[in-house]
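[SOLVED] Need 3D model of a four-part complex

Original post:
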Amino acid sequence: MSMNNSQISDETVIRLLRKKRLKATPQRIAICRFVLDSREHPTAQNIYIKVKEMHPTVSLATVYKTLNILKELGLIKELTFPQGETRFESNREPHINLVCQRCGKIWDVDDLAVRSIIARAVTKVKFNAMSERFDIYGVCERCSKRKAL
Amino acid sequence: MSMNNSQISDETVIRLLRKKRLKATPQRIAICRFVLDSREHPTAQNIYIKVKEMHPTVSLATVYKTLNILKELGLIKELTFPQGETRFESNREPHINLVCQRCGKIWDVDDLAVRSIIARAVTKVKFNAMSERFDIYGVCERCSKRKAL
DNA sequence: GTAGTTGCAAAACTTTTGCACGGCA
DNA sequence: TGCCGTGCAAAAGTTTTGCAACTAC
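Solution:
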């Protein structure tokens, strides 16, 4: 399953960076493109290994620095989990993450009711909501069919 | 705001531990009581400092070991956040966490619709759900009224 | 030209683990 | 008494930071 469908062009990324007065270096463009294109919720390591294929000198520090920029710009969300497997997603719409605790895959599920629940909750206690995270943890169908460990 | 309202007695905790053939040491009892009673979503450090008041020799390692036991027993949930501030909560019912990104406080909000959204999502993609997490990030009313930093 | 960025190494933190001692059952 | 649990220190793992060299603009 290829992830880089080039839905986001170099030009788009360059425009985003320039708008924030950030330099459009090849490393940054590659990191941004990969994570913004991906629907796989990659880890920093995943991104590092993938970007290294085209830019062998890139460092993990640069990956983290670029991911932090994208977080500040609100273009990606950081999903932390127990056992230190932080993952990054570019889907900014309110949605549900189905997280398989056996294979680690994450599926996005849309449900319009998520928005109305958020609206109800923040009204109840007067809260300025800025983002959200809705995870469901369990075992996916494929893993359920496999023999237990 | 006192947190130890003794809603959970030593006897209850001892019974829980013995049922799992775990020894009911004073440290474990204190750690379990504190985190199971708390509605403040404490960090491991918070728990360590508080338990140290009554058990000065307790170590952070013991706190982590005990928290891991409680997690395995399904009695608490671990909430990880960016910047490494993992927090623990004893509210096992599906609910929403309103997380203030300025003061760090977390409020629980109940909404029965959370359950139906979960049911709908797991049916759509055939998923064995075991637990969930629904966070809303933003700024609480009190912090909104304060001057910006 | 120069201000911002990279890549390396080291630091900072959180959480886990190994092991000898000590205490619960 | 025997075995499990504790507490210390060290390890492991992830993310951040300082800095000299480099590069996009």
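Edit: Chain B touches chain A at residues 71, 78, 80-82, 86, 96, 98, 100-101, 107, 109, 111, 113-114, 116-118, 120-122, 124-141, 144 (CB under 8 Å).
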